[in-house]
Amino acid sequence: SPVTMGRIATEPVEIDGAKIGEGDRVLLNFPGANRDPEAFERADEVVLDRERNRHIAFGLGIHRCAGSNLARMEMQVALRTWFERIGEFELEDPDAVTWAGGQVRGPRRVPVRFGAAG
Question: Model confidence over 81-106: pLDDT tens digits?
């Protein structure tokens, strides 16, 4: 699914001190909407069992990603297999986690310790 969408402002607006003029080109970041603290409790945390989870990672309505159900199933299988086979693990050093930049931000390196108990 797309992570950004280009648009042209139809009227001037100011958002958090940033002025956008009529005719200005803007780039909307879909993943940013999924971190809205007004829509999601603990918006900056990964909460796998989040109950109110109306994210738009796969788009909405008629533009919803056709592969979204497959992607969800793949993630469920991957996580279930990980937890069944790996057992206990913990993040080795939170400061050692590195992130990939660009349009899609995600972890590049996540050092974990296996067989660790809390």
Answer: 998 998 889 999 999 999 987 767 78
Q: What are the tokens at 105?
A: 């931000």
Q: Are 40 and 50 in contact (CB under 8 A)?
A: yes
Residue 58 burial class via C-beta count within 10 angstroms: exposed 0-12, middle 13-18, buried 19 and up: middle
Does one domain contain both 20 and 53? yes
Same domain, 22 and 55: yes
- Tens digits of residue pLDDT in 1-26: 567 788 999 999 999 999 999 999 99
Structure tokens at 74: 């793949």
Query: Positive or negative CA dihedral for 106, 90, 97, 16?
Result: positive
- Say if residue 73 is in the same domain as residue 53: yes
